[in-house]
């Protein structure tokens, strides 16, 4: 079943409110027919025999059963005849003095095929996991697609993660090959990625091959037989690489996300469902045409970069910006300058970035026209109303809709979003469930809250094609995390409100996960890192509101030695977290306390610590299960002591 060109110039399915209503109704009344229609536009080696089989009880969800395909044929080969010369990526290096690189679909295709042959030549086979630890350079996207070309599973680890976090992910995914670079440029900093990787690999004896991309040119030490340069390997192979035939349900990638135990969860996505869902959501949410220039600022190391910088835009055959740097270097006008330079039409970023740039004032923005922009988006965390208005006024010039898109690593693609043709929008509201998405809001007992003007836990009733397959090597955790709190439903872990008009607003996490600058972090992972400190007996991490980052981290720690140098301990703790998890997890506040609020069963009541961080002094709700309720007052006293000494110093 081949439609080589049929969707290389596809229109959008949702062009009006009526279209949305119709698509939504069809997607619910007959999901199998609905998704079959969307899927026919792709190239399949063999059509599926059954669209969907599912259960949320013993969770098992399968899409496009029996279908055979390769996602790279849909991202690349399919576009070549008509659009081979069209730019796929405009790469903007970190340093503005370095040259911009345009990569056409044809060039991207050749690079992917050559890289795929390098992988094969280095022993990678279908079903193997390849770990990718690279900065935002074209080779990152190319490496992912090269894996997909030959049926290897990619597991991208964000290049801001530390050696400890990298090692954990390599070991869990059982990766035998790593793709990394000598170093990375990030703003004014140069980060020695190879050194970090070497440190991680000391604990990963079964990883026996490292493919190195040259980026910074800094000296690196090479381990003989293990480490090879990409350039050398490329010269040994051709740029012809037929795509491997994949089953619809084969794994495309693993991507780690924090969980409420210390160990991150390897979220597994399968080829076909992920492809159809990212394509449908990309086209209909962003409404990006072939003439548009689209820019998603997310790092490819996170799901947003996977779905809406690599796969979604390439499936649509559009032009995207791939930016290596940060918004505030060499100055805080870098993004605005790039928007004018490349006449960016669609711009998708995070609330934290918006709030950061807001602090630099509007003068820097006024130097640029930003007239090319027609749509703005945000993702990753709730956007507060004042940041929404700032973005709308100063960047969108009050003419661009803002797409506040809600979704998760687990959902694969956007689930709830404002829609451009449906003109209605409300600041800080994600608004409408997309076709195929059936949200339900339940109370803590799991009862569905019907009607409007309700607040509760956000769940989903039906599967959608982009949903995760499982947690890598841990089906029990998959079942427990997503399907056991509210049996029969997928639970997102988020709180949600449905207002009087039926619009959705996300209120934030309800579990032990914290969003810091849009990055999801698990309290247990940070606590485990802190507990490695020889003086620390126990620790508790909580999030508290922060004007730029959304949330910041406070650590409450119990030290066994009455060391007088509490500042030194705090510094040691901060650097331990940076080294084990990464700089994003570093606590903003560290309090050394005598005790923690614990229940008789030994559980730390973090909600009490959260309230203390919010300045609460009296109202802590039911504390009858605490072993020692008095511990609360002691912590409050210790905190006020710290504050008074800090103010006094
Ligand atoms: O809490 C929600 C928040 O980000 C979580 C998912 O994080 P992650 O898997 O890292 O994926 C982020 C990028 C898709 C959600 O459970 N979140 C994401 N988007 C929004 C959001 N919170 C509020 N509004 C959003 N638009």
Verbal overview:
The structure is a single chain. The protein has 649 residues and is α/β, with parallel strands linked by helices. It has a domain at 517-648: ANL, C-terminal domain (GMP Synthetase, Chain A, domain 3). The chain is 33% helix and 24% strand. The chain is built from 19 helices and 32 strands. It has an eight-stranded mixed sheet, with helices on both faces. Helix 1 (17-29) packs across helix 2, helix 6 (163-173) packs across helix 7 (193-201) and helix 9 packs across helix 10 (303-316). The longest helix has 18 residues, at 631-648. It is globular. The structure holds adenosine-5'-monophosphate-propyl ester.
Blueprint of the fold:
Layout: H1 17-29, H2 31-39, E1 50-55, E2 60-65, E3 68-69, H3 71-83, E4 87-92, E5 101-104, H4 105-121, E6 129-133, H5 138-150, E7 153-156, H6 163-173, E8 177-181, E9 184-186, E10 189-191, H7 193-201, E11 209-213, E12 227-229, H8 230-234, E13 246-247, E14 251-257, E15 265-270, H9 271-286, E16 293-296, H10 303-316, E17 319-323, H11 334-342, E18 346-349, H12 351-358, H13 363-366, E19 375-379, H14 385-395, E20 402-405, E21 416-417, E22 432-433, E23 439-442, E24 454-460, E25 470-471, H15 475-483, E26 490-498, E27 504-509, E28 513-516, E29 519-522, H16 523-531, E30 536-546, E31 550-559, H17 566-580, E32 589-592, H18 606-613, H19 631-648
Parallel strand pairs: 4-17, 6-7, 6-8, 7-14, 8-11, 11-12, 16-17, 16-18, 18-19, 19-20, 31-32
Antiparallel strand pairs: 1-2, 3-13, 4-5, 9-10, 14-15, 15-25, 21-22, 23-24, 24-26, 26-27, 28-29, 30-31
Helix pairs in contact: 1-2, 3-4, 4-5, 6-7, 9-10, 12-14
Bound molecules: adenosine-5'-monophosphate-propyl ester.
């Amino acid at each position: 079943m081949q439609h080589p060109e049929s969707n290389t110039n596809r229109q959008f399915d949702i062009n009006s409110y009526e279209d949305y209503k119709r698509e939504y109704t069809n997607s619910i009344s007959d999901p199998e027919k609905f998704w079959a229609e969307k899927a026919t536009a792709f190239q399949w080696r063999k059509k599926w025999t059954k669209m969907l089989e599912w259960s949320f009880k013993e969770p098992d969800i399968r899409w496009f059963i029996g279908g055979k395909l390769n996602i790279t044929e849909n991202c690349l080969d399919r576009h070549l005849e008509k659009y081979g010369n069209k730019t796929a990526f405009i790469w903007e290096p970190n340093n503005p003095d370095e040259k911009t690189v345009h990569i056409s679909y044809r060039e991207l295709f050749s690079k992917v095929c050559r890289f795929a042959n390098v992988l094969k030549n280095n022993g990678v086979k279908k079903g193997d996991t390849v770990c990718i630890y690279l900065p935002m350079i074209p080779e990152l996207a190319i490496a992912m697609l090269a894996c997909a070309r030959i049926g290897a599973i990619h597991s991208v680890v964000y290049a801001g993660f530390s050696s400890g976090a990298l090692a954990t992910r390599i070991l869990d995914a059982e990766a035998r090959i790593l793709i990394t670079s000598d170093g990375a440029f990030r703003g004014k900093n140069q980060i020695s990625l190879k050194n970090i990787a070497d440190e991680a690999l000391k604990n990963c004896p079964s990883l026996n091959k490292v493919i190195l991309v040259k980026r910074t040119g800094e000296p690196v030490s090479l381990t003989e037989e293990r480490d090879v340069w990409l350039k050398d390997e490329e010269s040994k192979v051709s740029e012809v690489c037929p795509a491997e035939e994949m089953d619809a349900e084969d794994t495309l990638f693993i991507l780690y996300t924090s969980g409420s135990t210390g160990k991150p969860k390897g979220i597994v996505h399968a080829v076909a469902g992920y492809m159809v869902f990212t394509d449908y959501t990309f086209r209909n949410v962003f409404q990006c045409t072939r003439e548009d220039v689209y820019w998603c600022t997310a790092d490819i190391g996170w799901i947003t970069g996977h779905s809406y910088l690599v796969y979604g835009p390439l499936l649509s055959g559009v032009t995207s910006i791939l930016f290596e740097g940060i918004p505030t270097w060499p100055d805080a006008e870098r993004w605005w300058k790039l928007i004018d330079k490349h006449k960016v039409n669609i711009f998708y970023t995070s609330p934290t970035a918006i709030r950061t740039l807001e602090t630099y004032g509007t003068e820097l923005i006024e130097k640029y026209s930003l007239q090319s922009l027609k749509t703005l988006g945000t993702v990753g965390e709730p956007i507060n109303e004042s940041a929404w208005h700032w973005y709308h006024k100063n960047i969108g010039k009050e003419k661009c809709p803002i797409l506040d898109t809600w979704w998760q690593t687990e959902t694969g693609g956007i689930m709830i979003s404002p829609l451009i043709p449906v003109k209605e929008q409300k600041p800080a509201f994600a608004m409408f469930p997309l076709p195929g998405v059936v949200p339900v809001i339940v109370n803590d007992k799991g009862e569905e809250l019907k009607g409007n003007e309700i607040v509760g836990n956000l769940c989903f009733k039906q599967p959608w094609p982009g949903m995760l397959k499982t947690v890598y090597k841990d089906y029990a955790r998959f079942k427990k995390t997503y399907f056991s709190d509210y049996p029969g439903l997928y639970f997102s872990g988020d709180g949600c409100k449905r207002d009087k008009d039926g619009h959705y607003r996300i209120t934030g996490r309800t579990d032990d996960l914290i969003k810091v600058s849009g990055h999801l972090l698990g309290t247990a992972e940070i606590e485990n890192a802190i507990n490695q400190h020889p003086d620390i007996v126990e620790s508790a991490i909580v999030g508290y509101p922060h004007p730029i980052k959304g949330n910041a981290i406070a650590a409450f720690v119990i030290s066994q030695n009455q060391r007088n140098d509490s500042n030194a301990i705090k510094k040691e703790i901060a650097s331990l977290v940076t080294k084990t998890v990464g700089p994003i997890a570093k606590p903003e506040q560290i309090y050394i306390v005598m005790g923690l609020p614990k229940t008789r069963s030994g559980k730390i009541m973090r909600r009490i610590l959260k309230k203390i961080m919010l300045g609460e002094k009296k109202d802590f709700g039911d504390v009858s299960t605490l072993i020692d309720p008095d511990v609360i007052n002691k912590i409050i006293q210790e905190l006020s002591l710290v504050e008074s000494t800090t103010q006094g110093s």
